[in-house]
Amino acid sequence: MGEKIDPRIQKLAVEDPVAFFLSLCEMREQGKDPIAEGILPGNPVTKTVKSAERWATQQIDNAKAASKDWLDGVKNPSRNPIESAIAAKEKFLDRLKAALDAGKWEKNLAKSSLAEIIEVAGKVGTSAYETGVGARETKIRKRVGELQPLVQSVSNTIQAMPDKSDVDREKRLVSARKLMIEVGKKRAGA
Fold it and tell me: pLDDT tens for residues 1-24?
């Protein structure tokens, strides 16, 4: 391909491939075709990446076909995923901070839309949600069993406070908020 690239830009491809790549990306973002612009060769023998439609279809078909492999992998992990996640905490925080600092979080969220979210939810349907909740029944019961006595203690504390005036009721409301924050801290192990 090198000998057929426009000589004006061939030097850039050799000396700074990243800049070359970014210039091609910028052209495509502007709706320009590098082949039509004479930057890249139009030779049909030139290697091209498969079409977006073909590539996406293959990804979807392969992912669906691999569902049994996915389940087998979940049941037989090569290492404990929880321990691995805890061990990688600093790496996670460093990468998260770098992504936030670079604005990647906002940029990637902007690539999605509410309509897309609604479309996926519509296609998945309520049965997927129900199945997910049902599969987590043991976990839900355990967490609620841990939470309920703490919330009952908050209620008992609030009920023991005076309730005769607006000042009393305001104090109860503020105390309820503070106590629920304490519940959160206890749940987090703080």
Answer: 444 566 667 777 777 888 888 888
Q: What's the distance, CA 100 to chain centroid?
A: 13
At 89-110, the pLDDT tens digits run 999 999 999 999 999 989 999 9
Strands annotated E in the chain: none
Residue 78, SS3 per DSSP: coil
| Upper half-sphere CA count for residue 103 (Cβ side, 13 Å) | 3
Burial class (CB in 10 A: 0-12, 13-18, 19+), 79: exposed
Task: Tell me, yes or no, if the pTM score tops 0.85.
Answer: no
In this structure, how many other beta carbons lie within 10 angstroms of the beta carbon of residue 39? 19
| Segment (H or E) for 111 | none
Nearest to 24 by CA among 34, 16, 15: 34
